[in-house]
Amino acid sequence: AEANHLATSLEQEKEAVTEEATPQPAENKEESIANLIQRAWDLTDSGEWQTALDLLKSGAEAYPGQPDLIYHQALLLSTEADDIASAETILDHQLEEYPDHQDSLVLRGELYYSASDFEQARGHWENLADQNADYPDLAQELGLLLAKEFPKDRILALPHLEKAIKADSEVAEVYLHHGL
Q1: Long-range contacts formed by 50-59: CB under 8 A, 24+ apart
Q2: What is the pTM assigned to this prediction?
């Protein structure tokens, strides 16, 4: 009886996921996508990251050409499922089709950084800086990367670090601590 209840419960959740990912009228598309993404993170917060991932995948099928849905799949895989390889693959495909997707550039750079591939991290973050120099925390991350990992280019870190300090004076303590 308990197994039947569990199977029924899982089937109902699967139907709800499919229903949530059903395309809405065009005027509600952005709102529907935002709600779908929020629902996925709510599921993740309640420990159901696999259901959340399924919801995002269904959403990407229902709303083709929406890079935010793909980005959130990669983010979920890298943070909740600890499946870095799948996240990297998704982001690489994403950035082939949408090379200017800012959140994807940041996350791909972070994954490269975590793997100690500092050249690739730098390339992604500099690409983003060319598009949107005011992207949150980019100045700090890029400045620290340049200062720590590229000693010959350390002077290039200064404008980024100065910008980060102007944005958040507490950041100056971090730089002083690191001797930057």
Answers
A1: 50/81, 51/13, 51/17, 52/76, 52/80, 53/77, 53/81, 54/14, 54/17, 55/17, 55/20, 55/21, 58/17, 58/18, 58/20, 58/21, 59/20, 59/21, 59/33
A2: 0.80
Closest CA to 109 of 100, 120, 99: 120
Q: Is the distance from CB of 100 to CB of 131 less than 8 angstroms?
A: yes
pLDDT digits (tens, 9 = 90+) for 151-179: 999 899 989 988 888 887 676 666 655 55
Contacts of 78-84 with CB under 8 Å at 24 or more apart are 78/107, 78/111, 80/44, 80/49, 80/52, 81/49, 81/50, 81/53, 84/111, 84/114, 84/115
Maximum Cα–Cα distance across the chain: 68
